[in-house]
Amino acid sequence: MNVFDAIKERRSIKHYDPAHTMPAEDEGRLLDLAREGPTSFNLQNWRFVIVRDKSKRVEIRKAAWDQAQVTDASLLLVICADLKAHEKDPTRYWADAPAEARDVLVPMITPFYDGRDWLARDEGMRSVGMAAQTLILSAKAMGYETSPMIGFDQDAVAKIINLPKDHAIGMVLAIGKGTKGAWPKGGYLPREEVVIEDAFPA
């Protein structure tokens, strides 16, 4: 499936075959594709928590309004952001780059975010969103359905996955073999309402 078709055909699917097991090679391919996604300064500040433990899945389902996809999907990811990635040996983000690029970019990373916790959090959420979209479209192209979720108790899920204090949860993403289609599309706002040329009206 090409990317245009994946974008148009993607839906948030809530019903999955609980008996389906995703092959390890498919899981690895999805995660490697997600890691190709863009991040500011190449921070790679996303963290993908794969929840395999069935009891943890049950706990997360309880914290997520009893949504069945949490336990029934083949793969459940809690996609998090490392909010202090800029402080954690930033030279490693450019280890394979030419020296001239490394020498320019690495010294900029930590000072750009220092004292600007709001920016580090915004950056983390941007990174999570782009990685999730990459996963969603890649999964669709590979014949899987997805359900990105924010409907859950953040504190409860953070406790279940032992989230570090300098991390934040962006979303939960269920991936698997769908058994029931989504509701009809809700419709889209007209292009002229959402596309602004040059600047918002005064």
Notes on the protein architecture:
The protein is α+β, with helices and mostly antiparallel strands and 202 residues long. Helices cover 41% and strands 16% of the residues. The chain is built from 8 helices and 6 strands. It has helices at residues 3-9, 24-34, 54-62, 69-72, 99-113, 117-141, 154-160, 191-194; strands spanning 15-16, 46-50, 75-82, 145-149, 167-176, 178-180. It has a 4-stranded antiparallel sheet with strand order 2-3-5-4. Strands 1-6 form a two-stranded antiparallel ribbon. The longest helix has 25 residues, at 117-141.
Total strands: the figure is 6
What kind of assembly state do the chains in view correspond to?
A: single chain
- State the helical fraction: 40-55%
Structural class by helix and strand composition: alpha+beta
User: Which runs of at least 5 residues are low in confidence (pLDDT < 50)?
Assistant: none
Strand order of the largest sheet: 2-3-5-4
Spell the H/E element sequence.
Answer: HEHEHHEHHEHEEH
